[in-house]
Design brief:
Number of domains: 1
Oligomer: single chain
Number of strands: 0
Number of helices: 1
Helix content: over 70%
Distance between the termini: 127 Å
Largest sheet: none
Radius of gyration: 39 Å
Order of helices and strands: H
């Protein structure tokens, strides 16, 4: 009966070897893709962290500039009101 297989046993071994070889290649590719994804993910988190720090810095700067701008307008107005009040009360 083995003679009727016409070399199928040898061909079967070749097919199994090829399947095993492809399995190893697929596992290598999967491992490589996982490593690349993890590296890419770390880079994204680092960049997000840097962007968040820059946003915080910009918020602080805009707050300071807002205070300075408010003072530039408020101080002269207060001086003008005080001068007007002093003139109205006869003290100035």
């Amino acid at each position: 009966m083995a003679e009727n297989l016409n070399g199928w046993n040898e061909y079967q071994r070749l097919v199994l070897n090829e399947l095993n070889r492809h399995n190893v290649l697929i596992e290598d590719i999967k491992r490589d893709m996982d490593n690349r994804f993890n590296k890419f993910e770390r880079q994204i988190y680092e960049k997000m962290s840097n962007v968040e720090k820059e946003i915080i810095g910009l918020k602080i700067k805009s707050g300071v500039w807002g205070i300075v701008g408010g003072l530039i307008i408020t101080v002269p107005v207060l001086i003008a009101i005080m001068t007007l009040f002093l003139k109205m009360t006869g003290r100035g």
